[in-house]
Amino acid sequence: MSAQRLVLLCGRTVRSSVYVQALANLNIVPDAILVYGDGGGKVQSTRQVQGVMVDDLFTPDPCWELADCLDELGWPYQVCSAHSLSDPALLVMLESMRPELVVYSGYAGQLVPAELLRCYSVLHVHSGWLPEYRGSTTLYYQIIEQGGCAASALLLDERIDTGPILARKHYPLPPAGTDVDYLYDNMIRADLLVTVLAQWRSGLPWDRMSQQMDSPPYFIIHPLLKHMALLAIDKQERSS
Predict the structure, then answer these.
(1) Count of CB atoms situated within 10 Å of the CB of 232
(2) Does 136 map to a domain?
(3) Which helix (H) or strand (E) holds 176?
(4) Stated pTM of the model
(5) How much helix, strand and coil, in percent to the nearest 5, is found in the chain?
(6) Residue 233 domain-assigned (yes or no)
(7) What start and end residues bound the annotated signal peptide (predicted)?
């Protein structure tokens, strides 16, 4: 068995920081962490990004920079300046970590290449109920169409959100005024992530479910539809 089993492959994103905070909250410590690419910039939002409480969900601080978070926790990590997941330097560094499982938290629109998927099991958490809600910004589509949210954990393959599903979970709508992109989307992804990793670390097998539906993926939501989803969230809060 490899000395190092669980590896985080992290872009410098809010989601990566939220994942690290959620893992630390449950004392799930990765065996290695590879941070790649350039920073994504500061969090800028007109909605609430801190201090939002939702049932039993862990509340992270999306404004906490990934590197600062890792340094504060004392978790060692390696840095690769390459942005491309196909970059030979990145692949060599990842190979040296001898991962049994890679948790992927990359940049928006970035697909994990075949050369990486052929070598490792890559865990990704998608915001949307698979297989019905594949593709981009599906959280908003599900809010509009079903009045709720969901997240799905899967092992990646070479297509978009079509790999075997490990777990799915429904979540309530976020509180009115909550930032969905930086905060709530990442909160529910992180919640499901720690659930499946705790199961994996305990030695219990995942119940893998293959995806039979071959519907086309959703595309990035139009700003008007996104605004409609946010209005639906705020309206639900006022009527409850």
Answers:
(1) 15
(2) no
(3) none
(4) 0.94
(5) 35, 20, 50
(6) no
(7) none
